[in-house]
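Subject: Sanity check before I submit

Could someone independently write out the structure tokens for this chain? I want to compare against mine line by line before I put it in a report. The sequence has 144 residues.
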Amino acid sequence: PSITNVIIALCIVGWVGYARLTRGLVLVAREMEYVTAARATGATAPYILVWHILPNIAGPLVVQATFSLAGMIVAEAGLSFLGLGVQPPTPSWGAMLNEGRLFLLSAPHLAMVPGVAIMLAVLGCNLLGDGLRDWLDPRGEIVA
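---
Independent answer below. Compare away.
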């Protein structure tokens, strides 16, 4: 399997969360007053979707993307660790972790370095998603 096949497989599995989130956000946004006002002015459905609904649902979708990126990193590493991901000589943290496992007692750094890299990448994605959520969602702020 090449990296393209792994990405396609992960996308096939992961699209459902985006579809569910998008549907829920659109169902909420279409009942908002600004959409009703746009309908009252005679705006067409595609115009309302592109100029009123999509900008208001983009924030949660971007946050979802950063959080799911962390999950995809772990999934790819897990597949490569099991030998189902990308094949050598293509580098993969999961494959490096699997190869380092054999030398755990004599050279523990061979397994620790890819493990720490996976952990830091996932932590970075999660912190980015958390920061984006706070930045893109002003409703969480308390204004005195």
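---
OP: Matches mine. For the report I'm noting this point. Residues 3-140 form one domain.
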